[in-house]
Design goal:
One of its GO terms (biological process) is protein transport. GO terms for molecular function: GTPase activator activity; small GTPase binding. InterPro entries: Rab-GAP-TBC_dom (IPR000195), Rab-GAP_TBC_sf (IPR035969), Rab_GAP_TBC_domain (IPR050302). The chain is mostly helical. The protein has a domain at 3-137 and 153-173: Cyclin A, domain 1 (Orthogonal Bundle), CATH 1.10.472. Helices cover 79% and strands 0% of the residues. It is built from eleven helices and no strands. The protein has helices at residues 3-15, 28-44, 46-54, 63-69, 77-90, 94-105, 107-111, 116-126, 138-144, 161-170, 175-332. Helix 6 (94-105) packs across helix 10. The longest helix has 158 residues, at 175-332. The radius of gyration is 70 Å and the shape is rod-shaped. The relative contact order is 0.05.
């Protein structure tokens, strides 16, 4: 094929057959075909679908290489050429028919397997072995053309490519079914994008909350340090309070002793005052008696003084009389 025709074929495959959607960013066409394939597998082979689902094997593990290479990745060239014929004839949706018919032909074998690695290996490398012509005739070799296998097997096999195409054509997949599954996938994708947008919003909010949380943690750490300082101060205060309590108890003891002393002092003072009063009264009585005695003596002395003065006056009068007499006698003699 000339380069120009090959390029035109590539452009038509990319645009008219929508092969481009399988390779652009995020691969929306591939994800849509994989979703359609899983839904069709659930419809045509529900037991196999449930078996693979329980084993954790999704169509992404094995069908991705089928659809991206249009089955050329591992499939024998004999089969690939016939698959391309049907794709160019009916469109890219034909890959779904080939995928379903291969799963149908291998259903019993796959259901008998329980190991995930065995299932994955069979789906990737051996799913086309069901179409090996074990007893090929000369006509079948000439009709199909002997291209051999693209695998690493040494033996060259002849495949029943026509039978594969006939089986694929018998798989009834209506455009309405594909359209319904496409709408489901679009709704699912839209919901996932909305969920992703919501998750991004939540992540942004979470980042803000993380910053706020960090600030709160810093504030809590500051509060913890302040609380530790307050706790230390509280311990010191408690120690001081204990010391003050001890000192207060000491003062209370002293107050009780002083109170006992004060309570006892009035009685002692009363007793001492009464004793002193009695003593003073006795002394006063003695002084009074002494005063009376002295007054009596003074009265007696006053009387004696009066008598003495009277005697003195009499003596003085007698003296004066005698003196006059003496004077008279002197004059006479």
């Amino acid at each position: 094929m000339p380069e120009e025709e090959a390029f035109c074929l590539l452009v038509r495959l990319m645009n008219h057959y929508h092969l481009r959607d399988l390779f652009i960013q995020d691969m929306p066409g591939l994800h849509m075909r994989l979703y359609q394939f899983e839904r069709l597998l659930e419809d045509f082979e529900p037991a196999l679908y449930c078996h693979l689902h329980r084993k954790g094997i999704s169509s992404h593990l094995y069908a991705t290489q089928w659809f991206l290479t249009l089955f050329a990745y591992r499939f024998p060239l004999q089969l690939v050429l016939r698959i391309y014929d049907l794709i160019l004839s009916e469109g890219l949706s034909a890959i779904l028919r080939f995928g379903i018919v291969l799963m149908q032909k291998n259903a019993s074998t796959l259901l008998a397997m329980s190991d995930m690695s065995q299932l994955t290996t069979h789906l990737k490398d051996k799913v086309f072995d069901v179409y090996i012509d074990k007893d090929p005739s000369a006509g079948s070799i000439l009709d199909n053309g002997f291209f051999g296998s693209s695998s690493s097997s040494i033996d060259k096999e002849v495949y029943r490519a026509d039978q594969l195409v006939r089986d694929a054509c018998e798989v009834k997949i209506t455009p309405e079914t594909l359209k319904a599954y496409t709408l489901e996938w679009e709704e699912k994708t839209k919901a996932e994008k909305e969920r992703e947008a919501e998750l991004e919003t939540l992540r942004a909010s979470n980042a803000k909350y993380a910053i706020s949380l960090r600030k709160l943690e810093e504030r809590v750490e500051a509060y913890d340090r302040e609380q530790a300082a307050l706790a230390t101060e509280l311990v010191h205060t408690k120690v001081e309070n204990e010391e003050l309590k001890d000192e207060n108890e000491t003062y209370k003891g002293q107050v009780r002793e002083l109170r006992n002393v004060i309570e006892k002092q009035p009685e002692e003072l009363e007793t001492a005052w009464q004793a002193e009063r009695d003593d003073l009264m006795k002394r006063n009585a003695k002084v009074h008696e002494e005063n009376q005695r002295l007054e009596k003596e003074m009265s007696e002395l006053e009387e004696e003084l009066v008598q003495t003065k009277m005697q003195y006056a009499e003596i003085n009068a007698s003296h004066e009389t005698l003196a006059r007499k003496w004077t008279d006698l002197k004059r006479q003699f």
